[in-house]
């Protein structure tokens, strides 16, 4: 059975608690110390299951799977008068799946899981959810649903109730269990989104994008309601620039870290002459941004899921970039490259080196967080040189090497 720790755990969080007036003082994304406050004030609760401090990121909170899943015949959204569970009655198969000892979720079937965390948000505080980076890199499509709201991944201010996670494994069957975190919640107050002028001003003070070791000049930025990133396909035809998902692989246990050989699940992708590749329709690819991304402490970012101006492809399943991603106060690190999760739509589509393919939306923090991505948090993707998720043994981009000898699997510290 599940070994999730029980108890509310509020006593563990009190040392980071902030006064209510301080928490409500400024518009922007709530930082880690205010998330501790939100838990202490029971804006976020977890019943008998404790929320541990390590679940709190610089600007987001990990959400965890509950004890069962409904297999669905289709995806859905509630309307403004209905609850999620009322809709599920007509769309779920009769038998639920017990997740307490782990269960396999099949490819291309939607599942709905009640999350452990519930919310009671005050007026003026809204939530937004996104998949964790490791979730997107395995081509697992997730979206949060709440009662009486017809938009995915958005939690209205003042909402009180349960949260539910829709899960659709696309390329691989996956094994999940109670307590596993596949997505994150970010809370904010007011309009946190930065304008293009704000982004350019921030770039002049704290460079957001680097090319090699050089901060991009203002004239080199592509900004239009967000900050564009391009794809790295540079190199000879023997340089590995990405990975293409294999079909019909064995399931991946999402609670196991550095446990799998990448060659069992991925084909290597090499560029054609001239630095380009052709994406086959409905095949999942992992690529890297050409730019190093640096998110300073006063900002947070979100990769936008799809931009129709980028061509006939879906780029990235969306995801949060917490304050401190790629950031080094000493100036010795020049950003971390972003993993790009790409799928061509309907027809084959060619992408070339430095072609803009996705966009970062920047948001201001309500205050500087007391912890940053990387550093003491031992974040998995700080300074990354590979686009593979943490479930695979390291494989550096640009180097094609034989799989390493078998090593003992490591279990993720989930709770």
Describe the overall structure.
The protein is mainly beta and 415 residues long. The chain has 6 helices and 29 strands. Strands 14, 15, 17, 20, 22, 24 and 26 form a 7-stranded antiparallel sheet that branches. Strands 2, 4, 5, 7, 9 and 11 form a 6-stranded antiparallel sheet that branches. Strands 1, 3, 8, 10 and 13 form a 5-stranded antiparallel sheet that branches. A hairpin with a 2-residue loop joins strand 14 (209-211) and strand 15. The longest helix is centred in the middle third of the chain and has 10 residues, at 196-205. It is globular. The two termini are 14 Å apart. Mean pLDDT is 86; it is low at 1-24 and 395-415.
Supply the key terms.
mainly beta, 6-stranded antiparallel beta sheet, 10% helix, globular, disordered C terminus
- In total, the number of strands is 29
Level of helix content? Answer: under 10%
Radius of gyration: 21 Å
Overall shape: globular
- End-to-end distance: 14 Å
Secondary structure layout:
Layout: H1 10-13, H2 20-23, E1 28-29, H3 32-40, E2 44-45, E3 61-64, E4 68-71, H4 84-91, E5 97-98, E6 103-105, E7 111-120, E8 125-131, H5 133-137, E9 140-146, E10 154-155, E11 160-169, E12 174-176, E13 181-189, H6 196-205, E14 209-211, E15 214-215, E16 227-230, E17 242-245, E18 252-253, E19 256-257, E20 266-269, E21 276-279, E22 284-293, E23 299-303, E24 313-315, E25 319-321, E26 336-344, E27 349-352, E28 356-364, E29 410-411
Parallel strand pairs: 12-18
Antiparallel strand pairs: 1-13, 2-7, 3-13, 4-5, 4-7, 6-12, 7-11, 8-10, 8-13, 9-11, 14-15, 14-22, 16-28, 17-20, 17-22, 19-29, 21-27, 22-26, 23-25, 23-28, 24-26
